[in-house]
Design goal:
Blueprint: E1 2-7, H1 13-17, E2 29-33, H2 47-59, E3 63-69, H3 80-89, H4 94-97, E4 100-104, E5 107-112, E6 115-120, H5 121-125, E7 128-134, E8 136-138, E9 142-144, H6 146-151, H7 157-166, E10 169-171, H8 181-185, E11 191-193, E12 198-200, H9 210-214, E13 220-222, H10 227-239, E14 243-250, E15 253-254, E16 266-268, E17 272-276, H11 279-293, H12 297-302, H13 308-315, E18 323-327
Parallel strand pairs: 1-18, 2-3, 2-7, 3-4, 7-14
Antiparallel strand pairs: 1-17, 5-6, 8-9, 10-13, 11-12, 14-17, 15-16
Helix pairs in contact: 10-13, 11-13
The structure holds iron/sulfur cluster (2 copies).
One iron/sulfur cluster (SF4) binds next to helix 8.
Length: 328
């Protein structure tokens, strides 16, 4: 069974790392995967904590560098240069965190469960990784943690776009009974149903899949697959055959993603940090721990079941949801 270590305050970081095989990163070049923040979103993981992690890596003679990928939407992080500038503005510079900062815009095709994902080149080449995931809500996947950090954050913008596009619904009129369940399930009012008609407002749809999940007659299906399924597969393409320590930060838990300039409000009090070696176990533990503080908060706020990514991850062999929680 996986061990997931919980600690409340950053000063317990070294103790927590001593309870997982952190020393296996000793003497290695270590890619530190994290999101370095979007413009107008203050919730990203702070450089002070990241520096503490970098210092722990250096203390075991590892050679760390911070790493992330460009994004599919136009803005500061669309290009490597733009992202580096924004990262620097947020405090992620070699002077402040103590190591290089690298942004990738290219990828290597990697096939998982019959689909190909372009894993960022540096990530594909890395053998040792430390994953820093700031946990928050997400309007399309309910919650974003370790699985999403890799599943969306570890691949090229072309793969990001393809995954998003593949999760939009396709309507099959012959099977529709005009029951209206999909319209009620949609968090974005992208469907209207009357006694005579079914209407889809594509400009409002974010491909969250809630309507597909709830339709009782299979009249709605994915263009390709559920985004949370694609995330789990993509994460597997990113992390397999690597030696990885995962740290999830359960603080500044906002309704929306770190990518969203309007991600507020905060929907759960600060809790602390989790450390593990399995992305499925750490995300399951994250959801369980948050549930004890704010029951079903992601489902209530974002109307999306965030546990699907964990279930899919277990089904495809990304990891195991079984864990034992210990506190240090
Ligand atoms: S995929 Fe999500 S946003 Fe799009 S119509 Fe269905 S429920 Fe609404
Ligand atoms: S939930 Fe399915 S059957 Fe009911 S109105 Fe929507 S598409 Fe039609």
């Amino acid at each position: 069974m996986n061990t997931v270590v919980f600690f409340k305050h950053p000063e317990k970081l070294a103790t927590a790392l001593s309870r997982v095989p952190f020393k296996e990163l000793s003497g290695q070049q270590v890619l530190v995967k994290l999101h370095m923040g979007e413009k107008h979103n203050p919730y990203f993981m702070k450089p002070e904590f990241v520096k503490q992690v970098v210092d722990e890596l250096k203390a075991i003679d590892a050679d760390p560098f911070l790493f992330d990928t460009t994004v599919a939407y136009h803005g500061s992080r669309y290009t490597k240069e733009g992202y580096l500038k924004l990262a620097s503005h947020h405090g992620f510079t070699p002077e402040q965190v103590g190591c290089e900062v690298v942004i990738d815009d290219t990828g290597v095709p990697t096939t998982v469960e019959g689909r190909t994902y372009e894993v960022a080149t540096h990530l594909k080449q890395a053998t040792h990784v430390l994953a820093l995931s700031h946990v928050k809500g997400h309007i399309q996947t309910g919650m974003g943690g370790a699985i999403k950090n890799f599943g969306m954050g570890g691949v090229t913008k072309e793969t990001k776009t393809r995954m998003h596009d593949g999760s939009y619904p396709v309507y099959h009129k012959d099977a529709c009974t005009l029951c209206g369940v999909c319209a009620e399930a949609c968090p974005f009012q992208a469907i209207t149903v009357t006694k005579e008609s079914w209407k889809y407002h594509k400009n409002k749809c974010l491909g969250c899949g809630a309507c597909v999940d709830e339709c009782p007659t299979d009249a709605l299906r994915y263009q390709d697959a559920d985004l949370q399924y694609l995330l789990a597969c993509s994460a597997k393409a990113c992390v397999r055959k690597k030696n990885i320590i995962y740290i999830n930060e359960l603080k500044r838990i906002s309704r929306g993603c770190d990518c969203d300039p309007r991600a507020g409000p905060i929907i759960c009090p600060d809790i602390g940090y989790l450390v593990a070696t399995d992305p499925v176990a750490i995300d399951k533990a994250t959801l369980d721990v948050i549930h004890t503080v704010k029951p079903d908060v992601f489902k209530k706020i974002n109307k999306i079941n965030p546990f699907k990514q964990v279930t899919y991850g277990e089904e495809i062999g990304l990891g195991s949801s079984q864990y034992q929680l210990i506190e240090v």
